[in-house]
Amino acid sequence: MYKFVFVLFVGSFTLIAACNEPYTPKSKGYAVIDLPQKSYQLFNEPGYPYTFEYPTYATINKEVNYFGVSKKGDAWLNINFPGQNATIYISYRQVQPRQFDTLVRDAYTFVNNHNNKASFITDSVFTTVNGVNGVFFHIGGNVATSYQFFLSDSATHFFRGALYFNTIPNEDSLAPVNDFIFKDLTQLVNSFRWK
């Protein structure tokens, strides 16, 4: 009986003593993201039917596999952003007769695969100062990819790109990096030329 009273007394005293400090909730925060200075370099490699500018803080990976099949000779590549944990996946197709509409439909299908998580999807048709035609997609919400695009001359070349992060999608926390890489995507598209 004395043990029970003693435990009750110690427990009550601890509870009362612990309540002397006011409670202050901690706000949620995100890590500070250090982003590098913008500077660009030219990608102009033999065997690739295109050139463009990409950031100096990104790396090009030409050893691309698509579901276990090597695409090295097909002019596919990945632009890796190691500091931002992101990759722009690039695919290239030489357009065969009556294939252009299928390639465009496939590009729209890849974008529409994010409909169940997307809060919005916008597409913008454009022609660059270099005479390159394309469509740029902005996908909002907690989606795996916020930006996709394709470029084509409608007869011979079809170039498609998609930005992905190697993390769980969170629109709020990825917003600064998405905005940062969006400027790099814009530079890539505006400097793009067919050889």
Distance between the terminal alpha carbons, to the nearest Å? Answer: 92 Å
- Domain tally: 1
User: How would you spell out the order of helices and strands?
Assistant: HEEEEEEEHEEEEHE
Overall morphology: elongated
Helix-strand category: alpha+beta
Uncertain runs: none
CATH architectural arrangement: 3-Layer(aba) Sandwich
Tell me the number of strands. Answer: 12
Roughly what is the average pLDDT, rounded to an integer?
88
CATH class: Alpha Beta
- Number of helical runs? 3
Helix content percent band? 25-40%
Lateral strand order in the biggest sheet: 3-6-7-11-10-9-8
CATH topology: Protein Transport Mog1p, Chain A
- Rg on CA atoms, Å: 25 Å
Taking the sheet with the most strands, its summary is: 7 strands, antiparallel
Beta content: 25-35%
Concise account of the structure shown:
Helices cover 26% and strands 34% of the residues. The chain has 195 residues and is of the alpha+beta class. Strands 3-6-7-11-10-9-8 form a seven-stranded antiparallel beta sheet.
